[in-house]
Specification:
The chain contains 5 helices and 9 strands, in the order βαββαββαβαβαββ. By secondary structure, the protein is α+β, with helices and mostly antiparallel strands.
Length: 203
Protein backbone atom coordinates (compact mmCIF):
# COMPACT_ATOMS: atom_id res chain seq x y z
CA UNK A 1 0.00 0.00 0.00
CA UNK A 2 1.35 3.41 -0.95
CA UNK A 3 1.99 5.81 1.94
CA UNK A 4 -0.54 8.60 2.45
CA UNK A 5 0.45 11.93 0.96
CA UNK A 6 1.74 14.38 3.53
CA UNK A 7 -0.02 17.70 3.88
CA UNK A 8 2.11 20.76 3.19
CA UNK A 9 2.85 22.49 6.51
CA UNK A 10 0.98 25.69 7.34
CA UNK A 11 3.28 28.64 8.02
CA UNK A 12 1.99 31.67 9.93
CA UNK A 13 3.78 34.98 9.25
CA UNK A 14 3.42 38.37 10.89
CA UNK A 15 3.09 40.97 8.10
CA UNK A 16 2.97 44.74 7.81
CA UNK A 17 -0.06 46.75 6.79
CA UNK A 18 1.37 47.22 3.32
CA UNK A 19 0.13 43.66 2.64
CA UNK A 20 -3.48 44.62 3.33
CA UNK A 21 -4.40 44.44 -0.36
CA UNK A 22 -3.12 40.85 -0.58
CA UNK A 23 -4.97 40.07 2.64
CA UNK A 24 -8.19 41.48 1.17
CA UNK A 25 -7.86 39.31 -1.94
CA UNK A 26 -8.97 36.31 0.14
CA UNK A 27 -12.74 36.15 -0.03
CA UNK A 28 -14.95 35.90 3.03
CA UNK A 29 -17.88 34.55 1.02
CA UNK A 30 -19.40 31.19 1.98
CA UNK A 31 -22.63 29.34 1.37
CA UNK A 32 -25.02 29.33 4.34
CA UNK A 33 -26.49 25.84 4.46
CA UNK A 34 -27.28 25.75 8.17
CA UNK A 35 -27.48 28.15 11.10
CA UNK A 36 -26.80 27.77 14.80
CA UNK A 37 -30.01 27.04 16.71
CA UNK A 38 -29.57 29.90 19.17
CA UNK A 39 -32.52 28.84 21.31
CA UNK A 40 -30.78 25.55 22.14
CA UNK A 41 -27.24 26.93 22.28
CA UNK A 42 -25.53 26.72 25.67
CA UNK A 43 -22.58 28.88 26.66
CA UNK A 44 -20.30 25.89 27.29
CA UNK A 45 -21.32 23.94 24.19
CA UNK A 46 -18.64 22.18 22.19
CA UNK A 47 -21.12 20.47 19.85
CA UNK A 48 -23.37 23.15 18.40
CA UNK A 49 -27.08 22.63 17.73
CA UNK A 50 -27.84 23.62 14.14
CA UNK A 51 -30.81 23.67 11.82
CA UNK A 52 -30.86 23.48 8.04
CA UNK A 53 -31.26 26.69 6.05
CA UNK A 54 -33.44 26.44 2.96
CA UNK A 55 -32.97 27.85 0.47
CA UNK A 56 -29.24 28.23 0.94
CA UNK A 57 -27.63 31.62 0.31
CA UNK A 58 -24.22 33.30 0.18
CA UNK A 59 -22.85 35.42 3.02
CA UNK A 60 -20.00 37.81 2.20
CA UNK A 61 -18.78 40.09 4.98
CA UNK A 62 -16.69 42.17 2.59
CA UNK A 63 -19.77 43.01 0.51
CA UNK A 64 -21.13 45.17 3.35
CA UNK A 65 -20.18 48.81 2.57
CA UNK A 66 -17.24 49.90 4.71
CA UNK A 67 -16.59 46.41 6.02
CA UNK A 68 -13.91 45.30 3.54
CA UNK A 69 -10.21 45.55 4.49
CA UNK A 70 -9.58 48.35 1.99
CA UNK A 71 -12.02 50.51 3.99
CA UNK A 72 -10.48 49.84 7.41
CA UNK A 73 -7.76 52.53 7.30
CA UNK A 74 -10.35 55.23 6.67
CA UNK A 75 -12.55 54.02 9.53
CA UNK A 76 -10.04 52.89 12.16
CA UNK A 77 -6.53 53.53 13.39
CA UNK A 78 -5.09 50.20 12.26
CA UNK A 79 -1.37 50.88 12.68
CA UNK A 80 -1.26 48.92 15.96
CA UNK A 81 -3.33 45.99 14.70
CA UNK A 82 -1.46 42.72 14.14
CA UNK A 83 -1.83 41.20 10.70
CA UNK A 84 -1.20 37.45 10.45
CA UNK A 85 -0.95 35.55 7.18
CA UNK A 86 -1.16 31.80 6.64
CA UNK A 87 0.83 30.22 3.84
CA UNK A 88 0.67 26.71 2.45
CA UNK A 89 3.84 26.42 0.46
CA UNK A 90 4.08 29.75 -1.38
CA UNK A 91 0.31 30.28 -1.51
CA UNK A 92 -1.43 32.74 0.81
CA UNK A 93 -4.17 30.56 2.28
CA UNK A 94 -5.68 32.81 4.93
CA UNK A 95 -5.21 35.61 7.38
CA UNK A 96 -6.26 37.09 10.69
CA UNK A 97 -6.23 40.54 12.27
CA UNK A 98 -5.85 40.98 16.03
CA UNK A 99 -6.19 44.12 18.16
CA UNK A 100 -4.18 43.79 21.37
CA UNK A 101 -3.86 47.42 22.48
CA UNK A 102 -6.45 48.21 25.16
CA UNK A 103 -7.36 51.58 23.60
CA UNK A 104 -8.03 49.93 20.23
CA UNK A 105 -10.06 47.16 21.84
CA UNK A 106 -12.16 49.66 23.79
CA UNK A 107 -12.78 51.71 20.64
CA UNK A 108 -13.97 48.58 18.84
CA UNK A 109 -16.35 47.62 21.66
CA UNK A 110 -14.34 44.77 23.18
CA UNK A 111 -13.25 44.02 26.73
CA UNK A 112 -10.07 45.97 27.35
CA UNK A 113 -8.22 43.15 29.14
CA UNK A 114 -8.82 40.82 26.19
CA UNK A 115 -7.39 40.86 22.68
CA UNK A 116 -9.98 41.24 19.94
CA UNK A 117 -9.90 38.93 16.95
CA UNK A 118 -11.16 41.44 14.41
CA UNK A 119 -11.08 39.26 11.31
CA UNK A 120 -10.22 35.69 10.30
CA UNK A 121 -10.53 34.42 6.74
CA UNK A 122 -9.44 31.31 4.83
CA UNK A 123 -9.31 30.92 1.05
CA UNK A 124 -11.98 28.45 -0.17
CA UNK A 125 -9.53 25.74 -1.41
CA UNK A 126 -7.92 25.64 2.06
CA UNK A 127 -11.02 25.58 4.24
CA UNK A 128 -11.41 22.61 6.62
CA UNK A 129 -7.68 21.87 6.26
CA UNK A 130 -6.44 23.31 9.55
CA UNK A 131 -5.64 26.84 8.36
CA UNK A 132 -8.28 28.45 10.56
CA UNK A 133 -7.04 26.52 13.61
CA UNK A 134 -3.46 27.57 12.92
CA UNK A 135 -4.45 31.24 12.59
CA UNK A 136 -6.52 31.10 15.77
CA UNK A 137 -3.61 29.56 17.70
CA UNK A 138 -1.30 32.29 16.36
CA UNK A 139 -3.79 34.98 17.40
CA UNK A 140 -3.87 33.52 20.92
CA UNK A 141 -0.08 33.46 21.03
CA UNK A 142 0.02 37.12 20.00
CA UNK A 143 -2.49 37.94 22.74
CA UNK A 144 -0.35 36.16 25.34
CA UNK A 145 2.75 38.00 24.15
CA UNK A 146 0.86 41.27 24.62
CA UNK A 147 -0.13 40.24 28.20
CA UNK A 148 -3.82 40.07 27.31
CA UNK A 149 -6.02 38.00 29.63
CA UNK A 150 -7.84 36.30 26.78
CA UNK A 151 -9.28 36.61 23.28
CA UNK A 152 -12.75 37.74 22.27
CA UNK A 153 -14.38 37.40 18.86
CA UNK A 154 -17.73 38.33 17.32
CA UNK A 155 -19.56 36.22 14.78
CA UNK A 156 -23.15 35.35 13.86
CA UNK A 157 -25.50 32.38 13.98
CA UNK A 158 -25.24 32.06 10.18
CA UNK A 159 -21.48 31.41 10.34
CA UNK A 160 -21.58 27.83 11.58
CA UNK A 161 -17.98 26.98 10.51
CA UNK A 162 -16.61 29.90 12.56
CA UNK A 163 -18.75 29.02 15.58
CA UNK A 164 -17.56 25.42 15.40
CA UNK A 165 -13.94 26.57 15.17
CA UNK A 166 -14.23 28.71 18.29
CA UNK A 167 -16.21 26.18 20.31
CA UNK A 168 -13.75 23.40 19.48
CA UNK A 169 -10.85 25.65 20.55
CA UNK A 170 -12.34 26.23 24.00
CA UNK A 171 -14.18 29.49 23.43
CA UNK A 172 -17.40 30.00 25.34
CA UNK A 173 -20.42 32.06 24.38
CA UNK A 174 -20.55 35.27 26.41
CA UNK A 175 -23.35 37.13 24.68
CA UNK A 176 -26.08 36.62 22.09
CA UNK A 177 -28.06 39.52 20.64
CA UNK A 178 -30.88 39.11 18.13
CA UNK A 179 -31.45 41.98 15.70
CA UNK A 180 -28.05 43.54 16.38
CA UNK A 181 -27.38 44.37 12.71
CA UNK A 182 -29.47 46.88 10.78
CA UNK A 183 -28.31 45.42 7.46
CA UNK A 184 -28.94 41.80 8.58
CA UNK A 185 -31.94 41.90 10.94
CA UNK A 186 -32.48 38.12 10.87
CA UNK A 187 -28.98 37.35 12.15
CA UNK A 188 -28.05 36.94 15.81
CA UNK A 189 -24.75 38.37 17.04
CA UNK A 190 -22.65 35.91 19.04
CA UNK A 191 -19.72 37.02 21.21
CA UNK A 192 -17.24 34.25 22.09
CA UNK A 193 -14.30 34.52 24.43
CA UNK A 194 -11.51 32.43 25.87
CA UNK A 195 -9.38 33.26 28.91
CA UNK A 196 -5.70 32.60 28.36
CA UNK A 197 -3.42 31.11 30.96
CA UNK A 198 -0.34 33.14 31.75
CA UNK A 199 2.85 31.77 30.15
CA UNK A 200 4.79 29.47 32.44
CA UNK A 201 8.02 30.86 33.82
CA UNK A 202 11.15 29.19 32.50
CA UNK A 203 13.15 27.54 35.29
Amino acid sequence: MAPAAQQTPIEIRREGHESLASYAAITTAFEVREVVDVERLRSNATLLPVRAESPTWVKDYDAVPGNDPASWPSRFDIHRWLLLAAYVGQVRAGGAVVAVDSDDVAHLGGRVSFALLWDLRVAPPYRRRGVGRALLAAAEAAARDASCHGVEVETQDVNVPACRLYAAAGYRLRERTAGAYADAPRETRLIWNKPLAAPRAIR
